[in-house]
Amino acid sequence: xxxxxxxxxxxxxxxxxxxxxxxxxxxxxxxxxxxxxxxxxxxxxxxxxxxxxxxxxxxxxxxxxxxxxxxxxxxxxxxxxxxxxxxxxxxxxxxxxxxxxxxxxxxxxxxxxxxxxxxxxxxxxxxxxxxxxxxxxxxxxxxxxxxxxxxxxxxxxxxxxxxxxxxxxxxxxxxxxxxxxxxxxxxxxxxxxxxxxxxxxxxxxxxxxxxxxxxxxxxxxxxxxxxxxxxxxxxxxxxxxxxxxxxxxxxxxxxxxxxxxxxxxxxxxxxxxxxxxxxxxxxxxxxxxxxxxxxxxxxxxxxxxxxxxxxxxxxxxxxxxxxxxxxxxxxxxxxxxxxxxxxxxxxxxxxxxxxxxxxxxxxxxxxxxxxxxxxxxxxxxxxxxxxxxxxxxxxxxxxxxxxxxxxxxxxxxxxxxxxxxxxxxxxxxxxxxxxxxxxxxxxxxxxxxxxxxxxxxxxxxxxxxxxxxxxxxxxxxxxxxxxxxxxxxxxxxxxxxxxxxxxxxxxxxxxxxxxxxxxxxxxxxxxxxxxxxxxxxxxxxxxxxxxxxxxxxxxxxxxxxxxxxxxxxxxxxxxxxxxxxxxxxxxxxxxxxxxxxxxxxxxxxxxxxxxxxxxxxxxxxxxxxxxxxxxxx
Length: 633
Description:
Elements: E1 24-27, H1 39-69, E2 77-82, E3 89-91, E4 95-97, E5 100-111, E6 117-118, E7 122-136, E8 141-150, E9 156-160, H2 163-166, E10 170-172, E11 174-177, E12 183-186, E13 202-208, E14 214-220, E15 225-238, E16 243-251, E17 257-261, E18 269-272, E19 278-290, E20 295-304, E21 312-319, E22 336-340, E23 346-349, E24 352-353, E25 355-359, E26 362-367, E27 371-377, E28 381-388, E29 394-405, E30 415-421, E31 426-434, E32 444-456, E33 461-467, E34 477-483, H3 488-491, E35 501-506, E36 509-513, E37 516-517, E38 520-523, E39 531-535, E40 539-540, E41 548-556, E42 562-570, H4 573-578, E43 595-597, E44 608-616, E45 624-632
Antiparallel strand pairs: 1-8, 2-3, 2-5, 4-5, 5-6, 5-7, 7-8, 9-45, 10-39, 11-12, 12-45, 13-21, 14-20, 14-22, 15-19, 15-21, 15-25, 16-17, 16-18, 16-20, 21-24, 22-23, 25-26, 27-34, 28-33, 28-35, 29-32, 29-34, 29-38, 30-31, 30-33, 34-37, 35-36, 39-44, 40-44, 41-43, 41-45, 42-44
């Protein structure tokens, strides 16, 4: 339904704000004419004018009829009208009656910040301006009326405008902030390459219970690798597990597995019959050589034995996708989980792969994080992350943490950040990370710009400490840590390996937690990254005959910045997640403006929809996406 302030109830009609020129009468003639209203000439001219106004009024009533039936049936453009099918419809050409010709023009309504209609404001997807014009082809007389009509009662909306809404999606060089309730912005660039902007909201198991089902973990090699073994994690085993084949396949043009195993004689795979949950190592029958920068896939599929819902294994993944390498926070843009229900019918999922490669020279790359643990910050209970500075000092300008509050009631005091140099036994700075008003019960990145930049000395061990001494347990701040296990092969690929780990302080003593890490972002350059993307969760309209009418969004665009919006749809969630991104012309070559119609020919009846935001900065500031709404019926 339209926003409440626009609604008007008159026998069920949503026809609001009858505005702009009603009954405009313009006489257009090639030369100046003087008309004397007298006798039969006056009566004849009046009769013609009455006929014209009736024709005009019929046109507006036709628009209202179409509006009540479907908002999608009123697309932008110039049309005629016809009721040849028994109901009023727009036609591609103007319609005629006697000496009159009628046209209808549909456009977005524009509004100012207070919601009032203007000629230069923001376009409003809930309302359109309908102008009906008729022209007397004999005299040149023009009649026109313009009114504002609103979305039909059947229109529904998917709106995202809060931190909690956006946190369900996937971030790539972007982040949520809550300067105005919830925004998506570019992340700040960082010379500290070891930042750990990793998010693990939940873990789950992908069950392979049929011979045709497959699971793939897409990756891009960080360096030249000769892979000899793969470690994956069995989250659950039901009954007697069959034997699975696990190996490496190259990537197709559509970024899906090709179906051909790499390695000599196509033997770049191994077999596993998981007997217990947890990490399992699969030795490949032949090593697989992957050059640096090459995209490929770990593929898990059935090999032999009975497989069904009661005799199968679940393989561990997490959400959301992070697009980074946990060890050093470097970009890993193609990282993604893919599933196939029948052969090669692959679909991307908003999931983070969990795996580790073993190479001829040791453990090379992967994601070892299999669980998360909430940390409460209140009173004398503090949380921290130890960080090892590399061979060069870092000029630190800001620090960010993944933070929320425990209760709907605000904490009694602020969350304070202390940066302590453990090597020099000195406090480098103490300042507020977040105030009670800045936090919600949903996790979001909370960043503190340091009042004065500080230097982290080369090779020193630093601890970032979070505390809130005046806050009680019931209203505590909360952050998380991620578990990478204490086994060397997994710990070596966690954030900073053995040198970085979380700590917890109870009363007076800090307790180290090797194998666990707290997500943290270190900023040494205030300017944002030039480009980034945000991909929403998949939304189910619960309507197999759905029609999408419009997309509208609001944001802040400083000079030199821009935002691109694309969508994709599907008849299933998996189909949607693997579909191509489109703009208003049905291809990815265009993007949706702040108010745009959705192409019907390739979206109608596809009940699942997802959007992608691409943000372009100017090197100094970031654009912000504040809200987005998709109308459908």
